[in-house]
Amino acid sequence: MKRTWWALAPLLVLALFVAMTCRLFVWPALDPPDGLHADAILVLGGPGPRLQLAEELAREHSAPLMLVSVASVEWNCPRVYLASTVVQCFRPNPFSTQGEAQYAGQLARRHGWRSIIVVTSVPQATRARIRVERCFGGTVKVVAAHPSLAEWAYGVLYEWGALAKALLWQTSC
Question: What is the DSSP letter of 22?
Answer without folding.
Answer: I
